[in-house]
Amino acid sequence: RYKDKRPLPVPAFTELKQAWQADRPENLSELEKGIEAEWTPRLAAEKKKRRQIALLLDEGYAALGRCEYLRAHVALRLALDRNGKSIEAALGLGVAAAGLNLGHQANAMIDFVQANAAIATLATTWGVAWALVVMGEWNRAEALLWRKHTTDPQNATFLLLLALAQSQRGKLQSAIVNAERAVALAPAEAEPVKLLARILLDAGRLREAETRLRPLEELARRDAELAMLMVRLRLL
């Protein structure tokens, strides 16, 4: 059975959300060539292919931790070019491809991981779930996110993504419970509260939504999404 050789980073929900709301670069090919040229001297300094692969995996996974999907895509593509059987490279490349809206490549990498390692370890479960969330494939993502939550129940990112997937599938009451748990884990962050408030509004629980949104009124002057939630609350 396949065993994880390196952990896959878990960015905060706020970073994940900012990354998937960003526009995909138009000159993707040119940007990738520039990043690849930047790394050419460093790779040339490593004579052994094994060391080159390790360096690229380190760079790619670090970039994923910052939700820098473009840099991660270049590094992990180069790693997979050097070792076509690397589960770690394929897994990370699938996430990066999803982040760049390259759905065909992302699904190909998911199929590769499933065929060669199964989606059963901590890293493979999270990596596939991450890619599916970014692509909006909520049905498949929910089961994997639930599995991740059960193995790490105090992780707010898993709870919030699970709540998001459940809300997209119409499971509003379950989504509210999980979003409330996430807010309790990160009470000082605005994004979990915004997600919870939106799900409460979807469920028609207006008083609870108002209670959650009221402390954020000052922030709404600078946050268009939050301002629209408050407008929606007033209209309802």
User: Largest beta sheet, briefly?
Assistant: none
Structural class: mainly alpha
Low-pLDDT stretches: none
- End-to-end C-alpha gap: 53 Å
DSSP summary: helix tally:
13
What percentage of residues falls in helices of 4 or more residues? over 70%
Shape: elongated
Mean pLDDT: 94
Order of helices and strands: HHHHHHHHHHHHH
Strand content: under 5%
- Total strands: the figure is 0
How large, in whole angstroms, is the Cα Rg? 19 Å
Compile the SSE list and pairings.
Elements: H1 13-21, H2 28-45, H3 49-65, H4 69-82, H5 87-99, H6 103-116, H7 122-135, H8 138-151, H9 156-168, H10 172-185, H11 190-202, H12 206-213, H13 224-235
Helix pairs in contact: 2-4, 3-4, 3-5, 4-5, 5-6, 5-7, 6-7, 7-8, 8-9, 9-10, 9-11, 10-11, 11-12, 11-13, 12-13
What does this molecule look like?
The protein has 236 residues and is mainly alpha-helical. Helices cover 73% and strands 0% of the residues. It has helices at 13-21, 28-45, 49-65, 69-82, 87-99, 103-116, 122-135, 138-151, 156-168, 172-185, 190-202, 206-213, 224-235. The longest helix is centred in the first third of the chain and has 18 residues, at 28-45.
Q: Summary?
A:
By secondary structure, the chain is mainly α. The protein is built from 13 helices and no strands. Helix 3 (49-65) runs parallel beside helix 5, helix 6 packs antiparallel against helix 7 and helix 12 (206-213) packs antiparallel against helix 13.
